[in-house]
Write a structure and sequence with these properties.
Bound molecules: NADP nicotinamide-adenine-dinucleotide phosphate
Strand order of the largest sheet: 16-15-14-13-9-12-11-10-17
CATH superfamily of the largest domain: Dihydrodipicolinate Reductase, domain 2
Low-confidence stretches: 1-16
Distance between the termini: 27 Å
Radius of gyration: 20 Å
Mean pLDDT: 93
Shape: globular
Number of strands: 17
Length: 343
């Protein structure tokens, strides 16, 4: 069991004050600079320190965002007494070692996607957190819209779901040092974008696939484009595509016997546009929906709340297994049965 929030500090018998969960952040990159505002504007959390490999960079970022303690070195931050939870926003190869270090120092963990480089590493992370919370920062799972997706599938609005498809891409002239281009740092679209499209399939199928076939275009040592097909129980199938060589897409379709659910912004709503999706009926009639809510702030609230995180954790562990299987399929050119990988 998780240890329940030690954030409830009794003040007076009739008046309890909630102490905020104190976050320390590892890394000063793009996603950090986005999430800081959400951590600072959520009632239950605050940011007490931020670490960089370089002290000057930590100080620059701390000064910009009003964070009291800039720290040089990731391990130095993890050890700090004024940190309850560590947010890891670093290249994928650093997620596993620093997650384990976070567990060793008895802190909670919010780790950027992909949780780890492999299913084995993901399981090690899960096993390391006996009584502390851990969550991968896959924001779309926490948007209120995602609950509505589940309701539509469960209440039969789509009929019987038979096929899932997703496409995710962006066209990015990377800088040469970008971790997405480095094999050693866990770069490439298989881990970076595959986390979303395989996670999407696992989410709507409600379980991992029985088998997968994947192919990838590898350039500069990392997968730049990936296509995969998956087979689930009950004859549900999925096809997904992702890569760095097409204009931005973040689409999915959940095809049912009565209607299809279509979304063109599932990983993150388009800037300055309402969060949206459509249900297309067989007649061609289209029902449009839009939603309020901030997925990152909801994710943070879920992370600090007393709710069990096990559904999200299983989703992450299964996604890591699917990525392993896709990787093996790319390597061997064969369709891979997931059960064999787990044995
Ligand atoms: N959830 C989301 O929506 C989302 C969106 C984008 C990215 N992400 C994930 O967040 C993580 C970070 O991505 P990002 O886009 O923020 O990357 P980024 O802008 O390149 O920042 C990465 C940070 O990692 C640190 N770092 C440590 N060793 C490094 C190395 N050898 N090479 C490069 N950087 C190194 C750097 O911090 P210091 O120099 O300060 O130490 C750097 O600022 C990735 O896992 C990515 O998949 C998630």
């Amino acid at each position: 069991m998780y240890d329940q929030p030690n954030f409830l500090v009794p003040r007076q018998a009739e008046n309890q004050m909630q102490r905020k969960m104190r976050f320390g952040i590892l890394g000063t990159g793009r996603i950090t600079r986005r999430l800081i505002a959400d951590l600072q504007s959520t009632d239950q959390t605050e940011v007490t320190s931020i670490a960089s490999r370089e002290r000057s960079r930590a100080k620059w970022c701390a000064d910009q965002h009003g964070i009291p303690n800039p720290v040089e070195g990731y391990h130095e931050l993890i050890k700090r007494d004024d940190v309850d939870a560590v947010y890891i926003a670093l290249p994928p190869s650093l997620h596993h070692p620093l997650s384990l270090a976070t567990a060793e120092h008895n802190k909670h963990l919010l780790c950027e996607k992909p949780l780890a480089l492999s299913h084995h590493q993901a399981l090690e992370i899960q096993n390391a957190f006996h009584n502390k919370r851990w969550l991968d920062a896959t924001g779309w799972l926490h948007h209120p819209r995602t609950d509505q997706f589940s309701k539509w599938v469960a209440d039969g609005s789509l009929g019987e779901v038979s096929h899932l498809s997703a496409a995710l891409s962006f066209h990015q002239p990377f800088q040469s040092q970008d971790h997405r281009l480095s094999r050693e740092l866990g770069g490439g679209c298989l881990l970076d974008l595959g986390w979303y499209v395989f996670g999407f399939s696992r989410f709507f199928a409600g379980k991992k696939p029985k088998a997968i076939y994947a192919d990838s275009l590898i350039q500069k040592g990392v997968p730049q484009r990936l296509n995969a097909m998956m087979w689930f129980d009950n004859d549900v199938t999925a096809t997904v595509s992702c890569g760095y060589d097409a204009a931005t897409r973040k689409w999915f379709e959940v095809a049912g016997s009565v209607a299809s659910l279509i979304c063109d912004d599932f990983t993150r709503p388009w800037h300055d546009r309402p969060t949206r999706c459509w249900i297309h009926a067989a007649s061609g009639q289209v029902q449009s929906y839009s939603f309020e809510g901030n997925q990152e702030r909801n994710m943070i609230k879920t992370f600090v709340s007393e709710n069990a995180l096990t559904d999200f954790q299983s989703q992450a562990i299964d996604t890591a297994l699917i990525i392993d299987a896709a990787s093996k399929s790319i390597e061997t050119g064969e369709k891979i049965k997931l059960g064999v990988l787990e044995e």
